[in-house]
Amino acid sequence: MGKRSPIAFAKPKSDTTGITAERVDVFAKAMEEEVQGSKTATPANEPAKKQRSRKGLVSTSIWASKEARLELKIHAQKSDTTMEQYILDAINEKLEKDGGEFRIR
Description:
single chain; 105 residues; mainly alpha
């Protein structure tokens, strides 16, 4: 028996014939991204995000529709922040407006 290639992948017939011939090979695309660098890699001019700890914190939940959650997420991304921080900022603004004497950090 001859030597086998260490990585041997069978290519499905549907990838090379018919209407799916234009389909992107997911594995090949993933390998290209790995070679070019991860999408989540931080550019050299941006500082890395600070690691957070939830030690000593408690969770507070709200019930919201899927659409409301999606809208919050979109607005948070537009503000270049996390959804958690976006909601905390909104709560703190409301507390300030209503004369609350504390802020949530």
